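Hi, here's the filled form for the chain we discussed.

Project: internal
Contact: R.S.
Residues: 80
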Amino acid sequence: MNSEYLSSTAPTTSKTEINYTYEKLDTTLNKLTALQYHIGPQTDKKYPTYLRDDAIIVNNVSNPTSGTVKGSSWNIRGGA
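And the returned structure, exactly as it came back:
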């Protein structure tokens, strides 16, 4: 579920109407998860991310926007 549709607080107005829709599926949650995993997990939002410059090996000097991450213990940051 996209976090855009979630809230940690109750609606603040009494005019808010919540509609629920239920649908019976002929499969299990494990099967649905396996299907999603095989098509490649991804996010629906694009946002800037940052990685230290010494963590990247540039693949092509003429195209410095493409590279390979060295190692596996780097932290991806959402800001500088």
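Let me know if anything looks off before we file it.
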